[in-house]
Amino acid sequence: MNPIAKLLIVGGIVMIVIGLIWAVGGKYLNLGRLPGDIAVEKGNVKFYFPIVTCIVLSVALSLIMYVIRWFTK
């Protein structure tokens, strides 16, 4: 099979899985409000920096990219 076709199939499957996790897991996974995320509220100003959420997403995306690279060898 053509490597581009494999990449598109795996990418499509990954997108479906991410969509399902986002739709169903959004109720159970509290991404964006994890312990360690920085939230500061002073008066009318709100500052929110989801640092732990960024780290978790970075690790997850790195693993997905590793799997995609493994399948396309």
UniProtKB/TrEMBL annotation:
Keywords, comma-separated and alphabetical: Membrane, Transmembrane, Transmembrane helix
Does the keyword field hold Magnesium? no
Transmembrane regions listed in the UniProt entry: 7-25, 45-68
Name under which the protein is recorded: DUF2905 domain-containing protein
Q: Does the keyword Hydrolase apply?
A: no
Superkingdom of this protein's organism: Bacteria
